Amino acid sequence: MQASQPEPLALNEPLILPFAPEAVACGFPSPAEGYWAGDLDLIQHMVRDPACTFIWRAAGHSMTGAGINDGDLLLVDRGIDPIPGKIVIAVVDGEYTVKRLDVIQGRTVLLAENLDYADIVLQEHTEMSVWGVVTWILHAPKVRRGVRPRR
Questions:
Q1: How many Cβ atoms are within 10 Å of 107's Cβ, its own excluded?
Q2: In whole angstroms, what is the distance from residue 93 CA to residue 42 CA?
Q3: Fewer CB within 10 A of the terminal residue: the chain, N end or C end?
Q4: Residues contacting residue 76 through CB under 8 Å, at least 6 positions apart
């Protein structure tokens, strides 16, 4: 994906929302308490350093196995070390891509998280740099009716 670089986040004010006092059960429900635990500043919780944090929009389907869908928003931090196992925005021969960074048999590999897409195994002549590390994936839940997973 050829794209211009995004602008850093402009964070003039905190983004504070009410914070529930306990985790919500994904199994059997438990009785909820009747009060809020206080407020949570989403920016403080999700952004390590505003000057190094950018938002990218994902395009395509190569990372669906990592929970990144077409159109999702990605929070990307340029100040985090791109270690193997992290999902990164990489620039490969001048093109931007989002993949999982790994080193396999001494070679840097950008792994697709969808078996329909090939991994990018960096060759000797390939130019690659890591632009930033994905820290959060933002997307709305899918709407489904009358469908539930079966074993």
A1: 11
A2: 35
A3: C
A4: 53, 54, 55, 56, 89, 131, 132, 133, 134, 135
Query: Which tens digits make up the pLDDT trace of 96-133?
Result: 999 999 999 999 999 999 999 999 999 888 999 999 99
Q: Which residues are catalytic?
A: 62, 99
* Model confidence, pTM: 0.78
Note whether 55 and 73 are within 8 A (CB).
Answer: yes
Residue 100 CA to residue 119 CA, distance in Å, equals 9
- Phi and psi of 135, rounded to 5°? -110, -30
User: b vs e for 58-76, b when ≥16 Cβ sit within 10 Å of the residue's Cβ?
Assistant: bebebbbebebeeebebbb
Structure tokens at 58: 């994902």
Q: Count H helices, E strands: the chain?
A: 1, 9
